[in-house]
Structures are given as C-alpha cells and as structure tokens.
Amino acid sequence: MKFPQSYTLEQIASLIDCEFVGPNDFPVLGMNEIHVVEPGDIVFVDHPKYYDKALQSAATIVLINKKVDCPEGKALLISDDPFRDFNLLTKHFKPFKGASKSIASSAIIGKDTVIQPNCFIGHNVKIGDNCIIHSNVSLYDDTIIGDNVEIHSGTVLGASAFYYKNRPEGFDQLKSGGRVVVKDNVHIGALCSIDRGVSGDTIIGEGSKLDNQIQIGHDTVIGKKCLIASQVGIAGCVIVEEQVTIWGQVGVTSGITIGTKAVVMAQSGVTKSIKGGITYWGTPAEEVRGYLKGMAFVKRLPEVFEKLKGK
Question: Topology of domain 2-93, per CATH?
Fold first, then answer.
C-alpha cells in the first residue's frame, strides 16, 4: 500500500508515538507485508525468529519491537507492539468509510457494462468495459475490475483478510488496506469470496475462470488462463502460476507456489509448493502416477499376507 504522498520518518513515528532510528527526514512511501515490500516501505516484525528476514528485506523502514543495529541505508521504528502500530497506520491511511448509497459516487463504471439490481459498488471501485455484474454482488472499496468480466450473484470481492494475532483477551485482526484486482476476460461464478490484500493486491489473472463457491485468501495471485472448480479454498499469499487447473474441493495452504500448467485433482490438499506441468492428487498432494502406484501396492497387501501365512 503506497501512501498518497511521501512522509518523513519523524512524521510516521509521531502517528504511532514510538521511537525511531534514522534521519528525521528519512522518506517513507508506503507499508507492506514482507513478501511484497519495496524500498520506501514499512515492514513490521514482532518475533525474533523473523528479525533478520525483515531487516534484510527490500523494505527500508522496519517496525520492530527491539532495539537492534540498523542496517545501512535503512531506518527503524521501535515499538512495544508492532502489530498494533501497523494496524494504526492502516487505519490512518485507509480508514473505513461507510456507504450512503448502493453504488458509490466515486465508482467508475465502463462503457456497456451492466450492473444488475441489488449490487453494492464501494468507494473508488473501477469496473471496465463490457462487464456483467449480476444481482447481489458486493464489490468492496478500491476493487479494480478489467474489461469483459462477468461476476455472478452472491460473490463478494474485497472482504478482510483472515489474519489474526492470538492475545490473552482474544484474537486481534490485522486490518486490511489492500485491494482485489481482477484482470480482463475473467469469469467468476456465484457465491465466491475473494479477500483483499492486507497491504498489497489479491490478483485474478487475465482470462482465468472461477467456478461457484470458491474462497481465495488475501494477497494471493492467480495467473493467466487458470481454471478453478467449485469449492476450492486457497489460503493467503499463494502464487498460482499460468494455465493451472485446480479441480473441486482442493485445499491450498498459505505462502506456497503452484507451478505453470500444474493440474491438481479433486479433493487434494496442497501443503507445499509444487512444480508445473505435472498432475497431482492426494493429501499431501503428490504426482498422481506415484500416488496411484502406492494405492495399488496397498490393495495387494491382503494377498501378500495370505501368502506369508501359507508358508
């Protein structure tokens, strides 16, 4: 998430009332999660296990809960609770705005696009040309839709990320300030939910087709010309490369990559990154020929036992 203008380190520190290490006028351009940070971004870290990863990332400002040596060319924001303060920054730069009408005045709707009754189109939504948005679709604030896109009834784009910190008093949600971006020629079925990025974008690539009842988590990127069947659940921060086929009821864990032209058979569980050009099945998903060969051996076990008993 980029800020509307450049801020100084001192200005950001004053917003969250914390100490800082670095020049007062050190430029701060935005904030992001660690997998999408760029120079000028703030990244937060609150566990020693990830200190080095954050400090060595592309981010040039690190919001951290311990005084450490500041890498050259970077700055630190020292906070007793980086998670809380990252949320404070999100609330400041991307505050929730209530709606007063079903289609916001700031929404931009392209030529020959049809919006069916009972849709909700939020603030700063952009919809391209020749789209069909069927009834009861909700497009939350800042959603971007390309040209020639069709979205069926009951689908929600831009809900908040499923991202929580377990505190003694209960679960504390990491606020979402990102977007959902749908590229050209995408088809999205009924009753799908695509969560917005925490600070970046959740992206559905050009020409991809989604069936009904699909869940896609925050900051996930779906490549071009992918086919995803019904009841698939994809967690956050997943990269699905181009021309991937995922059949019904597949579950995909967070933070992994599915390679180009991979095929994942129905009801599989993808628990780690998998290579492209291969068909997978099972939980955990593995190359289908090996999986079927193993099943064949299992089926022969009674026969083997009988032979052993006869000796």
Answer: 3.40.1390
